[in-house]
Amino acid sequence: AQSVSQHNHHVILSEAASLELGCNYSYGGTVNLFWYVQYPGQHLQLLLKYFSGDPLVKGIKGFEAEFIKSKFSFNLRKPSVQWSDTAEYFCAVNADNYGQNFVFGPGTRLSVLP
Amino acid sequence: EAGVAQSPRYKIIEKRQSVAFWCNPISGHATLYWYQQILGQGPKLLIQFQNNGVVDDSQLPKDRFSAERLKGVDSTLKIQPAKLEDSAVYLCASSLSGQGPYEQYFGPGTRLTVT
Fold first, then answer.
1. Residue in A20, A36, A14, A24 with CA at minimum distance from that of residue A77
2. Which of the residues B19, B35, B49, B93 could staple to B43 if both were Cys, CB 3.0 to 4.6 A apart?
3. Contacts of B108 in chain A (CB under 8 A)
4. Across the interface, which of A43, A92, A98 has its CB nearest the CB of B108?
């Protein structure tokens, strides 16, 4: 069965610092990759997704992620975080093209200090 | 566009009682998902429907959990009897279907506390 790991449980940064959140998955076949974010008191919402093509994908609010197939990784980055980026971030993997077998990682809590 | 609706938002029950959660997906979304999110963990898929048929229920504890989506629109998830370890947020999500990994849209969730 596929699994998703996220390297950090809790990350604390100051505003304007650069961010990189790690995500690794275990599945040898074709995958679709997602990053979801949950701001305090809000629903889970999609930040960005990778299906095929350019492995560097850009999402909302200045976030981007890079798919490195050889490393089974899909790390999330932002060059300069803001206080409003404080949230829980979840990496998710879907290992087929029919929307099945969605697996979420355990999440990384990001706290940005003003 | 209205989002995914869930009710109730909060529920407190005693162990061995039963509880039901309701979800109404975004109009036109044929695929509906129920997730369980235990505090400090990522969402875990319980069951996935395509219209009114079950696509994946491999992680649903079928001895106590059941779900239905009779008319292919809204859905109900039931727990009977509840255990302490069922305390979690139950999330409903929906997406377009067909070939292709479509984005899932999540509802606000129902926070269940079993005492």
1. A20
2. B35
3. 43
4. A43
Question: Of A28-42, B63-77, B98-112, which gets the smallest average pLDDT?
Answer: B98-112
- DSSP H or E segment with residue A109: strand A108-113
What percent of chain B has pLDDT above 90? 77
pLDDT digits (tens, 9 = 90+) for A66-110: 999 999 999 999 999 999 999 999 999 987 655 566 889 999 999
Min Cα–Cα distance to chain B from A33, Å: 9
Peptide bond into B81 cis (omega under 30): yes
B43 in contact with chain A, both atoms CB, cutoff 8 A: yes
CA atoms of B84 and A45, how far apart (whole Å): 29
d(CA B21, CA B78): 6
The tens digit of pLDDT for each residue in A28-64 reads 778 889 999 999 989 899 999 998 899 999 999 999 9
User: In whole angstroms, how large is the CA radius of gyration of chain A?
Assistant: 14
Q: Which residues of A touch B44 (CB under 8 A)?
A: 104
**B81 exposed, middle or buried (CB, 10 Å; 0-12, 13-18, 19+)?**
middle
Contact A106 B43 (CB under 8 A): no
